[in-house]
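Can anyone check this?
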Amino acid sequence: MLGRLLAPLPHLLCAESLRVLAMATPSEDLRMCPACGFATTVAACPHDGTFTIGIEPICDEPDCARGYLFAGRFEIDRLIGSGATGQVFAAHHPGVDRPVALKTLRPHLASSGDHVARFSREAMLAARVESPHSVRVYDSGFDEATGRLFLVMELLEGQTLRQRLDARGPLSVRVAVDLLSQIMQALQACEAVGLVHRDIKPENVHIEARPDGALHVRLMDFGIAKDLGHVDLRLTADGAAVGTPAYMAPEQIRGHAVDTRTDLYACGCLLYEMLTGRLAFWAESLTPLISKHLEDEPPELPERLASGEMVPAAIRDLYRQMLAKTPDARPRSAAAVLAALESGEAAPEPSTETPRTLATPELVRPPATAAHATRDLGRAIDSAPPRPRLGRRLASLSRLASLVVLAPFAPFAPAAPPEYDFECVVPEDAARCPALAGYEAQCNADAHCEYSAADASEAWRALDVWIWVPPRSFEMGAAADYGPGEREVPRHDVDVRRGYWLMKFEATNGAYAACEAAGACPAPVRLQPGAPSDHREDADLPRNRLLPDHARAFCAWVTARGRLPSEAEWELAAGGTDGRQYPWGDEWGRYCFQAVGKECPSTSMVPVDAFPEGRSPIGAYNMSGNVWEMVEDCVHLDYRGAPTDGQPWLTDCDPKFPGSVMSRGGSSTVAGTHWGRVRARSFIGPPDLSDSYYSGVRCAVSGP
């Protein structure tokens, strides 16, 4: 219910507002205080007495938005994306019989002159850029019923470059050069009308696969683009840094004049990320990241990629020029870079001719609300003392960092440390895998580091295999709940900042028996009269009838520092970052799942290494079906208040389920398409021991 009413309200709501929304029904007159943004159903705000205004909910959930007639003429089909400042919906314009994308601004931001001006300016500037590699804007307006500004844009099919990199990893040299060439063509069109984009990053590059297999690029989001022929000091002026920190040029960080060469710097960062899967500049927090852009030399593009493909020297030279610290040392235009890419030669020597720039006015501090966009910064500004080698030049970086204003829909989520985030493809790559004591690394078929026991003298050790899961950011949960209550809502961003190892297979009967024999594990729960009869003790079947303490004892015994995974770690390993429904993809029944009944040979538990076709993106087996897999998180019947750092949720536990933990993945006794989904949640443990009949474990170990 909460998700159906939340969208028109401020991104951050107080606890009392959340309670109001949680108790509201769709038929109630939902209202909002225009002064403080408080959500209520009464005529006067209980906090400040201001008369509240009625708001007609456009939700963050595709199902409740479907069919809504927005602005009296656009029929909403589904939600495409959502952020702190607004949402993007796919819609249909009956008047011209054309699918469109509606980009909307949340109503509470209508009182923010900066947000409104930025939003309106995007329509004006994007409409000026005429290129097959930019998104067309058809119209703009204001919908009185919902209090929303909106843009009517071309509806694109496909995915963003960020989604492609997250799903498939680094690109080949040929594909990366092709995409960069098309971005250069878009920037040429920007140059022609005097625009600097200022926020080029994978999230703003859209890729569509054409019928002939070619990839077509569109440059999106001109919300912070700068018009070099017009100065408006009411909006973010020079002297205030604007952009996404991981891709910002030094002059952009300092708030100096920008031009096309500023965008070329971001494209150099983009080229490195496309080829390696890593950020060119990375740090745990904002201040050291800024210092790297200002002071550190960019990392070298490797001669040989992780895939074994060679990177031509001309491309490496071009990359170095694009990431030069000063604009004068970079290629002079997008056309120069495009010519170099098409000829296979490095970009020509930088020109002494100064491109069009905007003179730098006096430093202007942006509004505090924009300056503290913590979702985009990802982490609070680092207050640690600067490294001595930078001397006094870093003394003002914390002050400078406070001036950074980030674009809407531009979250900053640092990638994994480079040494632990790579594709493990060829045997030589295994030497780069982080070491796990007692195990030997190799590359698996899913390009991840996989570890087998060095001592496999005991039979159960043949299935004692682990997989390295590098740090990742992903969307956890669902926009709409598909099960009892609201267990899967709200959908929220999680940043798993520390890598970990996860067992490739569920713990087996053979492994648990060895733990019992060693005196480290208690006996499983006994079957009660009338219990299911399919609990065989074959050594390669998953151990079931476990309670949380059984699972913890086994994990601590099987390897040093073994533990239960958190819910976030489990979901990331099961579904990756592309939002898939099941570990193998979005199609139910594509692979045999043990709970399907008539689609499978049996509904009994199967060996833990069965059904390799249904493995998860990291290569883990049977994360859907077989046995429920316990995680460390205590019981919470929804995600409201859940941590976003990937750690287990151990506070505010539901008092009705003491000693119980959440469980994931379904079991062989649960039929249908629901419980086998990546996001489905249940729980295991006392007081009902029968819950444990189909509960097992898949252990984790924290990475370095």
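Reply from J.R.: I decoded it. The mean pLDDT is 74.
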